[in-house]
Design a protein that fits this description.
This protein is 50% helix and 10% strand. The chain is mainly alpha-helical and 234 residues long. The longest helix has 27 residues. It is globular and about 60 Å long.
Length: 234
């Protein structure tokens, strides 16, 4: 559902029954939906086509592949292949939609490349480790307060090291997620005199965002504007 933290989500018995009634079931991977991975084999036996969109793309249990437009294209292709195999008579429509989508991903890739390669600052500090794939693709150095899940807690020693790191690298901004700013982000920002900026890792959309017609690309455009500021892009 809208606004639910995807790392913690588990389907209800009613939702599980709906999955078994479906023609096709698409999920990211075990690192994001361990419950889905457990169901996948059984669904397959029951004739429900299963598409694991992150298969072969997720590294080190980091599920945030969708934020890298190059990997998002590969996910889209996997989903397209799965849908066309189940509904070949509409393949032309799906193909047209896929081409439109791929063009948008290419545009986003170009914009990210241009902004990051032209920016003097390459160090970013995030509330949790959600920009790893983007950092690797475009040459950023991500330092995260917590690990892959926002629920992890760093030790006092790690927090002290982060303070020293931020001062040495002249970090002016801490990137946090929409919703309530984490206490750890606030503590670090107060300690080094930095400002907290919000970047949306697109794990979920809030109900008001859904109502306003927000989608992957509209949110990523806003994220680009935030990145420009963080990286001192001129």
């Amino acid at each position: 559902p809208a606004g639910v933290e995807p790392h913690d989500f588990e389907p209800s018995p009613k939702q599980t029954a709906m999955i078994y009634d479906g023609d096709i079931f698409i999920f990211l991977g075990e690192s994001m939906e361990p419950w889905a991975k457990k169901m996948a084999g059984d669904l397959d036996k029951k004739g429900v086509a299963v598409v694991e969109a992150g298969k072969g793309l997720i590294e080190n249990n980091d599920p945030h592949i969708w934020l890298d437009p190059v990997l998002a294209k590969e996910m889209a292709q996997k989903i397209f292949d799965g849908v066309v195999a189940k509904d070949p008579e509409h393949s032309e429509v799906y193909h047209e939609n896929l081409n439109n989508l791929m063009q948008k991903f290419d545009e986003l890739d170009k914009n990210l490349n241009e902004i990051i390669s032209s920016s003097p600052q390459k160090n970013i500090v995030t509330s949790h480790s959600f920009l790893g794939y983007v950092a690797r693709r475009y040459g950023l150095e991500q330092t995260a307060i917590t690990g892959l899940s926002p629920q992890e807690e760093p030790s006092p020693k790690k927090m002290a090291e982060l303070v020293e790191f931020c001062k040495a690298k002249k970090i002016k901004y801490i990137l946090d997620e929409p919703g309530e700013v984490s206490k750890l982000s606030q503590t670090l920002a107060d300690e080094i005199g930095a400002e907290i900026l919000i970047i949306n890792p697109l794990g979920t959309l809030q109900p008001n965002e859904v109502k306003a017609g927000e989608d992957y690309f509209s949110v990523m455009e806003k994220n680009l504007e935030v990145l420009k500021r963080v990286l001192s892009y001129e």
